[in-house]
């Protein structure tokens, strides 16, 4: 059975990159080697894998990737740290005055 990975990389500048792949080892190598000068991670190398979630369905993986890409840093850091239970709290909007 084919598996798909939604992953988060910590870039050298402290930013996070979220992606999806069916071969995590090869994809990580591509990020580290900088195959595409236009890629988000190209000028932010080296990168470090900080999160990986495995899916059996590509559509679920893509949907989760899109969801995570839309999250604020705090929510990404919650799942990186395995604090899934904090997501509802972090989803609440705070008013800025």
SSE order, one letter for each helix or strand: EEHEHHH
Q: Which value, in Å, is the CA radius of gyration?
A: 14 Å
Indicate the CATH architecture.
3-Layer(aba) Sandwich
CATH superfamily: GIY-YIG endonuclease
Number of DSSP-assigned strands: 3
Give the CA-based shape: globular
Helix vs. strand class: alpha+beta
Number of domains: 1
Residue fraction in strands: 15-25%
| Named CATH topology | GIY-YIG endonuclease
**Strand order, largest beta sheet:** 2-1-3
Mean pLDDT: 95
**How many DSSP H or I helices?**
4
Helix content: 25-40%
The low-pLDDT segments are none
Distance between the termini: 51 Å
Largest sheet entry: 3 strands, antiparallel
CATH class, please?
A: Alpha Beta
List the helices and strands and how they pair.
Blueprint: E1 4-10, E2 16-21, H1 24-33, E3 48-55, H2 58-69, H3 73-80, H4 87-91
Antiparallel strand pairs: 1-2, 1-3
Features:
97 residues, alpha+beta, GIY-YIG endonuclease, 3-stranded antiparallel sheet, globular
Structure notes:
- The protein has 97 residues and is an alpha+beta fold.
- It has a single domain, classed as GIY-YIG endonuclease.
- The chain has four helices and three strands, in the order ββαβααα.
- The radius of gyration is 14 Å and the shape is globular.
Question: What is shown here, in short?
Answer:
By secondary structure, this protein is an alpha+beta fold. The chain has helices spanning 24-33, 58-69, 73-80, 87-91, and strands at residues 4-10, 16-21, 48-55. Strand 1 (4-10) and strand 2 form a beta hairpin.
